[in-house]
Amino acid sequence: MKNILVTGGAGFIGSHLCERLLKEGNNVICMDNYFTGRKENIVHLLSNPYFELVRHDVTFPYYIEVDEIYNLACPASPIHYQFDPISTVKTSVIGAINMLGLAKRVQAKILQASTSEVYGDPVVHPQKEGYWGNVNPVGERSCYDEGKRCAETLFMDYHRQNGVDIKIVRIFNTYGPRMRPDDGRVVSNFIMQALKGEDITIYGEGTQTRSFQYIDDLVEGMIRMMATEDFTGPVNIGNPVEFTMLELAEKVIQLTGTKSKIVHKPLPADDPKQRQPDITLAKEKLNGWEPKVALEEGLKRTVGYFENMK
Ligand code: NAD
Ligand code: UDP
Predict the structure, then answer these.
(1) Residue 213 class from Cβ within 10 Å (0-12 exposed, 13-18 middle, 19+ buried)?
(2) How confident is the model at residue 310 (pLDDT cuts 50, 70, 90)?
(3) Looking at the DSSP assignment, which residues form a beta bridge with residue 112?
């Protein structure tokens, strides 16, 4: 039985990861400060004696004996990470330093939940790991993008300088049950608006693209990444099937049968125009990993979750 620390474990992705790690027979310590995470996401795990919940802010040092660390603590939705941008940078950077220090001390493997945002508004398409990105260092998204880029740097330096066994995954837009209904991200926004019969808000023309990955495919990729030997990444984990926001809105309208109408709102600053992962490296290094859940199927499951929440 491994002792595994998941920071940000009460969040959307973290809660699914904790669940899966418990199913595989591990002892899981879930650390969260509940900035965007919710107890409801993990309440069903509390009766499991191998699940421990700790209220803690990752920007403060934390001491524990563990074999593996998944570092997910960080708000991920633009409205949440821009709410207190200084705190977002601290969470990514000081959080990474604290968790890397812990990994070094107890010789744990450590995986960083990085992001496709490290590519910024990419001029290379689709994005391969070797692309260094096109990131505005002084914009409204910078607290998140640059915080995550600096965390990647710290991970690589702890690896090169101190021999820490690190793994970096660059996660592309992921969705599924347990996203917050008020999260502000596009999938939860469109589904909630459709279910309530409200206008569906497309920012800009709706021609910008994203590639949406269902949560189960991501969790599988993260677990396979942690199990690799002599491979640090960074590796892209995402679903390469690309959609415009207009296409996404139309799919949500069709699946929910809503009477909601599409309306257009201003495009947020520095909103990336296109995003699509090249997953060749993931397939090669993660034992043939590839996404299994198509958008339509994943949206159905997510709509079902939000319907039950209403
Ligand atoms: P989320 O907001 O649901 O989860 C983040 C969790 O971190 C929350 O539970 C929050 O309370 C916790 N947290 C935030 N600051 C903290 C702090 N200082 N100390 C302790 N806990 C803290 O978002 P998510 O979608 O589950 O994202 C999880 C991770 O994956 C994040 O690091 C995010 O950057 C990364 N990621 C997510 C996506 C995506 O599409 N969902 C894409 C790329 C990267
Ligand atoms: N978006 C939109 N309507 C919304 C929320 C988001 O059109 O109600 C757009 C947003 O401008 C972006 C895309 O959807 O182009 C994805 O946004 P999200 O915040 O989900 O993720 P990110 O921009 O970080 O990829």
Answers:
(1) buried
(2) low
(3) 71, 168
Distance 40 CA to ligand 1 centre (A): 15
Distance 113 CA to ligand 1 centre (A): 8
Rounded-to-integer distance, Cα 271 and Cα 239, Å: 20
Global pTM reads: 0.97
| Tens-place pLDDT, residues 71-91 | 999 999 999 999 999 999 999
d(CA 193, CA 209): 20
**Catalytic residue numbers?**
144
Tell me, in angstroms, the distance from the centre of ligand 1 to residue 71's CA: 9
Mutate to test the pocket of ligand 2, among 13, 74, 116, 203 (most ligand atoms within 8 A of CB): 203
Pocket residues: Cβ below 6 A from ligand 1: 7-8, 10-14, 32-37, 57-59, 72-76, 91, 95, 113, 115, 171, 173-174
**Distance (Å, whole) CA 30 – CA 6:** 5
Q: How confident is the model at residue 263 (pLDDT cuts 50, 70, 90)?
A: very high
